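Q: How would the structure tokens look for this protein?
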Amino acid sequence: MTDPTAPDPTDLDVTVHDASSPLSAVDVAESLAVASEAADADGSSPLSEQFQLALRAASSEGARHVVARSGGRVVGYAQVRDGAPGEPPSAELVVAPSARRTGVGTWLLEALPPDARVWSHASGPAGEGAAAFAAANGLRPVRSLHVMGRSLVDGPGWPAAVVPERYAVRRFEPGRDEDAWLALNASAFAHHPEQGSLTRADLDQRTAEPWWDPDGLLLVVRADDPARLVASHWTKVDPPEGDVGEVYVVAVSPEHQGEGLGRAVTVLGLDHLRSLGLARVVLYVDEENTAAVRTYRGLGFEDVEVHRQFARP
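A: Here is the predicted structure in token form.
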């Protein structure tokens, strides 16, 4: 039996939105609703935080939005974001559960730049379906993002943080540290397609979120120059009333790598999250970042799931 809510392929309208053709409030609301429906159906969000924030803000800074409508309603959405210098753009897309296997996903994909690398954040059957869709459209996996986690109340312990005496530890101070943190983040993630391109507007979006807590952004600074950041660990608790924390962003200045600061600042963040009475902590790490993966495994983290990025050969 034909699904009466499925779109008519002959009635599909795919529109690209950028600074010259911004998203409307209706586009935003209906696209977010499609993403929510897909998350409920698949058990995981199809859009990562950065893409969700850009959609909610209808932002065209470094991003383009693709909206697919059928019968006047949104049935699919995609976003493509500029990568770091020298890196290809990254994209994510979602199709309403009722509109799948009708060609909507393929139309969205064709509206993206040919060199765009497309993320799938699904696992289980939904992840298998995403992989099959990618293969059918000539895309192959090129990158893996590990989701890792551990308990904060039991399991293996972790050693105390060891911070050399020439450094000091303090909390992020709003109105003082934004530019210095952005500079540290840009240098630490110079070759990271997403994190390395974080802008002041992106930072301001995050610090306006309900989960933002400046006490959760720990800074390692020069003891003789507290304004000079050498490493940081931004922790996150979302939702704020939840019992799961996140190792959100760990950054170490390239000039200070090899001094054990990555492990030390990670432990400082774990100590902070445990002090909040949380039960568990999770993190996201690129498979190719073998040093970070080794550090996290040494601190008791284990794989929970794996997200994949696909690209044309």
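The first strand starts at residue 12 and ends at 17.

The chain has two domains: 9-138, 149-311.

Upvote if useful.
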